[in-house]
Model the fold of this input.
Amino acid sequence: MFTVTTSPDGSAVSLTGPDGTSTRFHAIWLRDNSWDPQTRAAGNGQRLIALRDIPAGTHVGSAEIVDGALKVVFQPENKTVTYTPEWLLKHAYDVAKPAESGWTGEAIETWDSGLMNSVPSGDFLQVQSEPSAKRAWLEQVRRYGFGKLTDGPIKEGALFEVADMFGFVRETNYGRHFEVRTEVNPTNLAYTGLGLQAHTDNPYRDPVPSIQILYCLESTAAGGENMVVDGFRAAERLRRENSTGFALLSKYCARFEYAGEDGVHLKSRRPMIELAPDGEIISIRFNNRSTAAITDVPFDDMAGYYAAYRRLGEIIDAPEMEVTFRLNPGECFIVDNTRVLHARKGYSGSGSRWLQGCYADKDGLLSTLAALEEAA
Ligand code: NM2
Ligand code: OGA
Ligand code: ZN
Done:
């Protein structure tokens, strides 16, 4: 059974659950989170009112448990609203928060090369056609920040079918999609046979595309294996080793730039390790090819900043951090481009290598997953 007590001035209530733990809620918070039909539209659930419609002096006139639900009368509106304890506990904010910066959210799990034996993957046709397979694959992508699909069609444009499984293509100056293969006058080093250090794509864009799909159509050239590295794990490792260096990379903005084709000059000013105001790691930007002159670090911190940047690069390059695989025609992988870095080994000689790539966004992917979870 739940019990409720109201603070003497009515500014908050305290809900105590069957296990004896109590959680407090402010009157203004409760009132703003009413789900009655005057506050929220019945169909789409959007809030019909603004905060200005709720009196600043809102307080709890009375609060009681009736038939297992919390019933609150707010004054001066004299408005009665009921809440289920389940909804309240799910949205409780009177709970301990991580004190240290550099924490990661509950839905994710950071990894290193140990993940080699269980690379997140799914079967193209199953994920495409079976909601349970799609859900399982997207859950892995949310948890680990990347996922492979195997046994897909070996045909141009198949990558759009992958994007359609969870979201929408993000078109850029590189096109709705791009051909990743060796070109004669490459507008980007990705369009050569050079190896590419583990990187996030398009750090010079703001916002960055948060999903990348790379789909293999040909792969007979020697070399060209792909590697992925968990940027959040790399940041955690840097913080453990050298918290000052971690702080420098998150405190100061780096600069990124791309001007490899006519009519395009993309620039951004963002940190390599981006933290939320409460210290959660929210994104990594790391790309040796596109880092511009860094000018936002004060003179006295620049040497330390470069030492931390170097060390982050060493951690990213360390074999024990990377998961390696070779894409065969009809196989692809997607990465959370705000977290997981991707790399490729150089390739040359006879034979060919051809991938098609495109960008999409993670909010859409997470939305598709949440809807599948809610439907189950
Ligand atoms: N391409 C493949 O972010 C980058 O510049 C990496 C992106 C050219 C779209 C390559
Ligand atoms: C890219 C890239 C990797 C590859 O196109 O952004 O990193 O395997 N390509 O060719
Ligand atoms: Zn890339």
Q: What stands out?
A: The first strand starts at residue 3 and ends at 6.
